[in-house]
Design a protein that fits this description.
Blueprint: E1 5-10, H1 13-26, E2 31-35, H2 43-51, E3 59-62, H3 77-97, E4 100-105, H4 111-121, E5 126-130, H5 150-168, E6 188-191, E7 201-203, H6 213-223, E8 232-235, H7 248-260, E9 267-271, H8 278-290, E10 294-297, H9 307-310, E11 317-320, E12 337-340, H10 341-352, H11 357-373
Parallel strand pairs: 1-2, 1-4, 2-3, 4-5, 5-6, 6-7, 8-9, 8-11, 9-10, 11-12
Helix pairs in contact: 7-8, 7-10, 10-11
Length: about 375
């Protein structure tokens, strides 16, 4: 029988975790990992090295701006077109070399993956989308491009006509028309939460015995040998004043209140956000020390989403400010008690009449919406 290859596009550690669950569940062979990172998240590259199960992958190919190269931003025309040509060639070469018949794209709402869908579905490839976080479930009804300026629209139309159409058979109007999910060619959609009910939907069955030897050793090293019953996991957030100037002290205050509520024999496992600053790390560590609590940091050497692998029988509860980890409660791991700090933070901001209350309220409502999806 002719072997058929699969390409998975990976832009985050969570996507790699999900991709390997799919490979195991569907018993896929001849898999190619096309990977990169988004924004400044270069730490993802180290996480991939720890998490990747070598026997699952025939080849791993890095591409630049993995989630952006198909956007057609035209802010830097020469660079945009160079990256488009380079990435398109890498993908096309991998498809030919490995006789690829199926592409797995890890972000249903991403314009670049819409472009890949457009390009390669027309060449007869199957297109599958897979779980990549709570954004998988909170898709807009319409992917709008109407907010472009007239200059941007004109540039997109001209380069569509004179470059993308003749060389890649992409209609210039592609960059200008609003799109809905019905415009995408979806062979299968893989999800962790049993929410979607279309004929092409497939439920992912978590199995966290599926991990690399490197990751197993790393987890063992992270946890140590002490008795961890009754421990808690504290997931911090990246702070950039998005929620309002001069509110970080309130963020620290809700963390301290939570720590003071714990018994003294509790071990606190702190998992910093990948982009958290050294200043906030030091302040949170000092809060824990001041309250005379035992603690340990996780994910310092490699920022692997280790929290997804540990929660089955490890932590008594999980404390988050606002995190997608809580969204998977009862699905990627056994149901746990989740403590949300953002609620108390909102009340403090409101009573002190500071902070971006509309944004904080929006975050709380979106969390409640996601909780409704999983109930």
């Amino acid at each position: 029988m002719e072997r058929r290859g699969n390409i998975f596009f990976i832009q985050s550690p969570l996507q790699l975790l999900i991709a390997q669950l799919i490979i195991n569940q569907e018993k896929l062979v001849d898999n190619i990992m096309i990977y990169g990172y988004i924004h400044a998240n270069t730490h993802s590259l180290d996480a991939y090295e720890v998490m990747r199960i070598p026997e699952m992958w025939q080849e791993c190919i890095f591409i630049e701006k993995i989630a952006e190269w198909g956007l057609g931003s035209f802010r830097s025309l020469h660079d945009d077109l160079r990256i488009f040509r380079k990435n398109y060639k890498k993908i096309s070469d991998a498809i030919q070399k490995h006789n690829v018949t199926t592409l797995y794209l890890g972000d249903l709402g991403n314009n670049t993956y819409h472009m890949i869908d457009y390009l390669f579905a027309n060449k007869g490839l199957d297109i599958c989308f897979f779980e990549e976080g709570n954004g998988h479930y909170l898709l807009p009804i319409k992917f709008s491009v109407t907010n472009y300026s007239w200059k941007m629209k004109l540039a997109k139309m001209l380069y569509g006509i004179f470059y993308y159409k003749p060389f890649y058979n992409i209609d210039g109007r592609y960059f200008l028309d609003d799109r809905t999910i019905e415009h995408l060619t979806i062979t299968r959609r893989y999800s962790v939460i049993p929410y979607f009910k279309e004929s092409f939907d497939v439920l992912i069955k978590p199995n966290f015995e599926i991990k690399s030897k490197t990751l197993e050793n790393y987890i063992r090293k992270e946890l140590g040998c002490e008795n961890n019953s009754g421990s808690v996991l504290l997931l911090t957030t990246v702070w950039d004043n998005t929620f309002g100037e001069n509110t970080i002290e309130l963020y620290y205050a809700v963390i301290e209140d939570y720590i003071k509520s714990l018994s003294k024999d509790t071990v606190i496992y702190i998992k910093p956000h990948p982009r958290e600053t050294e200043d906030t790390k030091k302040t949170i560590e000092q809060i824990v020390k001041t309250n005379d609590m035992r603690y340990k940091y996780l994910g310092v050497e490699f920022n692997v989403p280790i929290e997804y692998y540990l929660q089955d029988d490890f932590f008594a509860e999980v404390c988050v400010f606002f995190s997608s980890v809580a969204f998977y409660n009862g699905y990627l791991y056994k149901r746990k008690k989740i403590v949300y700090l953002i609620d108390k933070y909102y009340q403090l901001c409101k009573s002190n009449k500071i902070g971006n209350l509309d944004l904080i309220d929006k975050c709380i409502k979106s969390r409640q919406l996601l909780q409704n999806l999983t109930n």
